[in-house]
């Protein structure tokens, strides 16, 4: 039941929560994490993704991943679908997946491995081994062109894969991939958030991921509504409102991605701390640009 529900809910917004830290960055600020998750639940997002990239997954220890997962699923209380990010080596990813399943997650999102030397066959085996270890849904986070149509066809044999979070910035390749896999009953999700969603929806995406939801949930929801209704004028009106924020996140090869979201939350009075290395907080120039954007949105 939860697998089919997750597949349907992926046709909306996958809200990727941040991970608040204490002032010195040494620990997770559990109170603010609970508040962050409650904020997303109260704004009616049907999928929340703890341990995603916006949640600084690769800056967390394995113990902290468990803490984030447990707290997020406690606050979700089964009202929405928890889609927990998992990764590292296959054994660790399986342990994280089983932990998520035991605590009520509807699915896991498997981060693309950061291993520098990956083969397509090895990647297919990695995904398959993880998916076969659990009974809940699996979403694959695809960030490279390593998987070809042949690789995807092998993954079609895995019954509990319900979606692909596609994060290769190539709508043409995306459209071609979907056209050759029409017989695969999964949900294709734009993994590049609001700034790329209009282009990927034209190519076959049915949902998108968002870190913007942490600061401006109504803008994300307005974008989804416009896309679902094929209202191009409204879509690009919202797109232009969001563009300066997302452009700032994309600076330094996306190095600002999480730092901008956290800085924005701190500026409007939240207490979510800074990012951890190897990411750095915003410099003064970027912070001033962010202040300007938030003032345009009447958030400051």
Question: Can you walk through the features of this model?
Answer:
With 300 residues, this protein is of the alpha/beta class. It has a single domain (2-229), classed as TIM Barrel, CATH 3.20.20.70. The chain has helices at 2-9, 30-42, 62-76, 90-102, 120-131, 149-155, 171-180, 193-202, 217-228, 232-249, 251-254, 257-267, 284-296; strands spanning 13-15, 47-48, 81-86, 107-110, 137-142, 161-166, 187-190, 207-210. Strands 1-2-3-4-5-6-7-8 form an eight-stranded parallel beta barrel, surrounded by seven helices. The N and C termini lie far apart (43 Å).
Summary tags:
TIM Barrel; 300 residues; globular
The name of the CATH topology is TIM Barrel
Nearest-integer average pLDDT? 97
Helix content: 40-55%
> Which parts are unreliable, with pLDDT below 50 for 5 consecutive residues or more?
none
CATH class: Alpha Beta
Given helix and strand content, the structural type is alpha/beta
What is the secondary structure topology, with strand pairs?
Blueprint: H1 2-9, E1 13-15, H2 30-42, E2 47-48, H3 62-76, E3 81-86, H4 90-102, E4 107-110, H5 120-131, E5 137-142, H6 149-155, E6 161-166, H7 171-180, E7 187-190, H8 193-202, E8 207-210, H9 217-228, H10 232-249, H11 251-254, H12 257-267, H13 284-296
Parallel strand pairs: 1-2, 1-8, 2-3, 3-4, 4-5, 5-6, 6-7, 7-8
Helix pairs in contact: 2-3, 4-5, 5-6, 9-10, 10-12, 12-13
């Amino acid at each position: 039941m939860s697998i089919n529900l997750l597949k349907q809910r992926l046709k909306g917004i996958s809200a990727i929560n941040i991970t608040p830290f204490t002032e010195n960055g040494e620990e997770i600020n559990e109170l603010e994490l609970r508040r962050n998750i409650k904020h997303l639940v109260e704004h009616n997002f049907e999928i929340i993704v703890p341990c995603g990239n916006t949640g600084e997954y690769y800056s967390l220890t394995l113990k902290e991943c468990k803490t984030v997962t447990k707290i997020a699923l406690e606050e979700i209380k089964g009202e929405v679908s928890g889609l927990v990010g998992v990764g590292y080596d296959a054994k660790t990813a399986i342990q994280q997946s089983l932990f998520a399943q035991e605590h009520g997650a509807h699915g896991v999102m498997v981060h693309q491995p950061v291993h520098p030397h990956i083969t397509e066959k090895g990647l297919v085996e990695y995904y398959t081994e993880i998916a076969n270890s659990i009974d809940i849904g699996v979403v694959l986070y695809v960030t490279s062109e390593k998987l070809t149509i042949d690789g995807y066809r092998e993954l079609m044999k895995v019954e509990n894969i319900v979606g692909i979070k596609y994060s290769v910035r190539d709508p043409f390749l995306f459209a071609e991939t979907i056209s050759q896999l029409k017989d695969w009953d999964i949900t294709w999700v734009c993994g590049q958030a609001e700034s790329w969603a209009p282009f990927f929806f034209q190519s076959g995406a049915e949902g998108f991921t968002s870190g913007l939801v942490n600061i401006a949930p109504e803008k994300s929801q307005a974008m989804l509504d416009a896309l679902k209704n094929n209202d191009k004028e409204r879509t690009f009106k919202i797109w232009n409102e969001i563009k300066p924020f997302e452009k700032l996140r994309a600076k330094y090869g996306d190095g600002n991605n999480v730092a901008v979201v956290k800085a924005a939350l701190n500026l409007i009075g939240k207490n979510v701390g800074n990012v951890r290395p190897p990411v750095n907080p915003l410099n003064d120039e970027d912070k001033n640009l962010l202040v300007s954007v938030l003032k345009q949105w009447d958030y400051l």
